[in-house]
Design brief:
- This protein has 666 residues and is α+β, with helices and mostly antiparallel strands.
- Helices cover 39% and strands 20% of the residues.
- The chain has five domains: 57 residues, Helix Hairpins (Orthogonal Bundle), CATH 1.10.287.610; 240 residues, DNA ligase/mRNA capping enzyme (D-amino Acid Aminotransferase, Chain A, domain 1, 2-Layer Sandwich), CATH 3.30.470; 95 residues, Nucleic acid-binding proteins (OB fold (Dihydrolipoamide Acetyltransferase, E2P)); 146 residues, 5' to 3' exonuclease, C-terminal subdomain (DNA polymerase, domain 1, Orthogonal Bundle); 78 residues, Rossmann fold (3-Layer(aba) Sandwich), CATH 3.40.50.
- Strands 12, 13, 14, 15, 16, 17 and 18 form a seven-stranded antiparallel sheet that branches. The protein has a five-stranded mixed sheet with strand order 2-11-10-3-9. Strands 5-4-7-8 form a four-stranded antiparallel sheet.
- Helix 1 runs antiparallel to helix 2, helix 13 packs antiparallel against helix 14 and helix 18 packs across helix 19.
- The structure holds 2-(butylsulfanyl)adenosine (IVH).
- The site of 2-(butylsulfanyl)adenosine has 14 residues, from strand 3, strand 8 and strand 11.
Length: 666
């Protein structure tokens, strides 16, 4: 065997590198299982070489997420990690050890879902939220209150609370939000986030809190650290009940079992149920329920002896990579996508996987015709972990991304300061097509009868190069298109005519300004009365809008600074498109022109229902509170928006007062 000193030093360095990538950069390059294997290998080597000094070893600590830009706080009760297992035998052994330790007792085990999020500790003093702190190194973490306190459903205040309470849980991101953010990044040619956990971890550590507020995070709480006075709980099961009665979002299901075998059955049940949970669940945590027994069992240097985590295996399979196809975003970004021989994974059929960019393909040396290992762990977008090189065809050649783009007749260039390729020319027909499709789509101008097949023909025949050209189409031109008759031509012309009256935000979104999505477009409309006002806004004015960060402000400013875009807007105006906010001119309805912000959950209406009622009465909704907000509708567990409304002296309504305002319509 190699020199154990060297082996240990090498493994430690390797693990420390992965700790850094996971905890500090939120960009892990290996999955949990591979990481756990490295740690197990190191632990075995250390055990075989007890003379080795391992006080500082990563096997004895919990990683560290702290960053310099944040203020550090010491947890009153440290946040420890858990021992992991991937198999039933080790779980049963864990139970047997405890049974041996407590031979006289019936041991109750609690089985909880293990949430794949980012650990957080919330401090409440006399029932008032004080701060949110990341796990850090377990003893001390970063103050992330700025990015956490606005999370929907997190109570600002709790009733009949102890003087000091540290509530522990996980911050996570819903799959749909993860996909929304990645779709924007894909369109911009920026590298995609691998999974919701990394994105949640990156988001809580953003210094640009406007950007952090743009991304929706969620939270679930399952434990308590410090509690003073300490008389509050004697069992873990009680904590769940108590957290729920305080109004915290809690675990959807827990199991109380009286043997480790029953705990195992519950884990199997959890595995079948977890797909339906709102939060991503990557395993189970089994805990002794009774705190007296927990205290007696005690801790190792990094983990309790009274709990263990069981991790479900990520689902993987081998399949054939048939080809690498290219997706082109509305701003011309070219993203490679793997087209796979369909394979069943984690209950779904996977036939595509993201390849991120040229560098990723090169790093993993992925080639069409390769057999690849694909992973989809329910919550993770399908990923290619690597190539099964033993199954590679003999005549296989490395994949040349630039050449592939050329062969497909796409005229793209690689960003000088990034890994993305982009179609630079605005005259490129594919780019024109994408821009028109985006403009016509339901979330933008909602132009019926203008699907991708029609757009393709319009562009290839030179009838429409940009969005203003659409409004100059004649019936004769349309009748010339394939599958067009009098009726369909008439329908499209009418749909185009109708689109002239869309809301201002729909137009702003439809312009395809890099980084500006649907919500940002709405936020912009809530702050600028017309496209002209938006076009002439300075970067500072744009950045002052809640929800608009510096990158977006720069992008908007640059877009309107481009002469071609100014000409485009003049043409839209001459065709009679609505370029002003209806909220300023609307005189119909009880709430005409009023801007509302919804926060917290209302007793009977969902947010969507409340927005619809407001809009039907001529009002508008915005996602953030500013001086221009007229009313804030606050429900249960409303957070920072409520505080801001108070600060700005904005009228706060509840559901009842909103309803009476609505019915005051004459
Ligand atoms: S209890 C001292 N319960 O997993 C024990 N942890 O791998 C504290 N986690 O640090 C942890 N779901 O960040 C506990 N139901 C759950 C959990 C959970 C997720 C996280 C937590 C912990 C890590 C350990």
């Amino acid at each position: 065997m190699a020199d154990p000193d060297k082996e240990i030093a090498k493994l430690r360095a390797e693990i420390e590198k992965h700790d850094r990538l996971y905890y500090k950069d939120a960009q892990p390059t290996i999955d949990d299982q591979a990481y756990d294997r490295l740690k197990a290998e190191l632990a075995a080597l250390e055990a075989a070489n007890p003379s080795f000094d391992f006080a500082e070893s990563p096997t004895k600590s919990v990683g560290d997420d702290r960053l310099e830009a944040f203020e550090s706080y010491r947890h009153r009760v440290p946040m420890l990690s858990l021992d992991n297992t991937y198999n039933r035998e080790e779980l049963i052994e864990f139970g047997k050890r405890l049974e041996k330790r407590f031979p006289e007792q019936t041991l109750n085990y609690l089985v909880e879902p293990k949430i794949d999020g980012v650990a957080v500790s919330l401090t409440y003093e006399n029932g008032q939220f004080i701060r949110a702190v990341s796990r850090g190194n377990g003893a001390e973490g970063d103050d992330i209150s700025q990015n956490v306190r606005h999370i929907a459903g997190l109570p600002e205040q709790i009733e009949t609370a102890p003087e000091i309470l540290e509530v522990r849980g996980e911050i996570y991101m819903l799959h749909e939000e993860f996909e929304r953010i990645n779709a924007v990044r894909e369109a911009e040619g920026q590298p995609l986030y691998a999974n919701p956990r990394n994105l949640a971890a990156g988001t809580i550590k953003l210094l640009d809190s406007a950007e952090a507020h743009n991304r929706k995070l969620d939270i679930v709480l399952y434990g308590v650290g410090a509690c003073e006075p300490a008389r509050y709980f004697s069992h873990q099961a009680e904590i769940h009940k108590r957290l729920k009665s305080w109004g915290f979002p809690v675990l959807e299901k827990i199991w109380i079992t009286d043997s480790i075998e029953c705990a195992w059955s519950s884990i199997e049940e959890l595995d079948t149920l977890r797909q339906k949970f709102t939060y991503p669940t990557d395993g189970a945590v089994v805990k002794l329920d009774d705190f007296r027994l927990q205290d007696e069992a005690g801790f190792t240097s990094k983990a309790p002896r009274w709990a263990i985590s069981f991790k479900f295996e990520a689902e993987r399979a081998e399949t054939l990579l048939k080809e690498i196809s290219l997706q082109i975003g509305r701003t011309g970004a070219v993203t490679p996508v793997a087209i796979l021989e369909p394979v069943q994974l984690a209950g779904t059929t996977v036939s595509r996987a993201t390849l991120h960019n040229e560098d990723e393909i090169r790093r993993k040396d992925i080639r069409p015709g390769d057999t690849v290992l694909v992973q989809k762990a329910g919550e993770i977008i399908p990923q290619i972990l690597g190539v099964v090189t033993s199954k590679r065809p003999a005549d296989s050649q490395p994949f040349n991304f630039g050449q592939h783009i050329k062969d497909l007749g796409i005229e793209a260039e690689r960003d000088p300061d990034g890994a993305a390729w982009r179609i630079v020319s605005k005259d490129d027909p594919i780019r024109q097509q994408r821009a028109l499709q985006h403009f016509a789509s339901r979330v933008c101008m909602d132009i019926e009868n203008l699907g991708s097949a029609v757009v393709e023909q319009l562009v290839s025949r030179g009838l429409a190069k940009n969005i203003a050209d659409l409004y100059e189409l004649t019936k004769e031109q349309l009748l010339d298109l394939e599958k067009f008759a009098d009726k369909s031509a008439q329908n499209l012309l009418e749909a185009l005519q109708a689109s002239k009256q869309r809301e201002l935000w729909q137009l702003i979104h439809g312009l395809g300004i890099p980084h500006v999505g649907k919500q940002s477009a709405k936020d912009l409309e809530a702050n600028f009365e017309s496209l002209e006002q938006l076009a002439t806004a300075t970067e500072e004015q744009l950045e002052a809008v809640d929800g608009i960060g510096s990158i977006m402000a720069q992008s908007i400013h640059a877009w309107f600074g481009d002469e071609t875009n100014r000409v485009l807007i003049d043409r839209l105006q001459s065709h009679g498109l609505n370029l002003t906010s209806k909220r300023s001119s609307s005189t119909d309805g009880a709430l005409a022109g009023k801007i509302f912000v919804l926060t917290g959950s209302l007793p009977t209406l969902t947010r969507g229902e409340a927005s619809k009622l407001i809009e039907a009465a001529g009002g508008r909704t915005s996602s953030s509170v500013s001086k221009k907000t007229d009313y804030v509708i606050a429900g249960e567990a409303s957070g920072s928006k409520y505080d801001k409304a108070i600060k700005l002296g904005i009228t706060i309504l509840n559901e009842d007062t909103l309803k009476s305002l609505l019915s005051s319509e004459s």
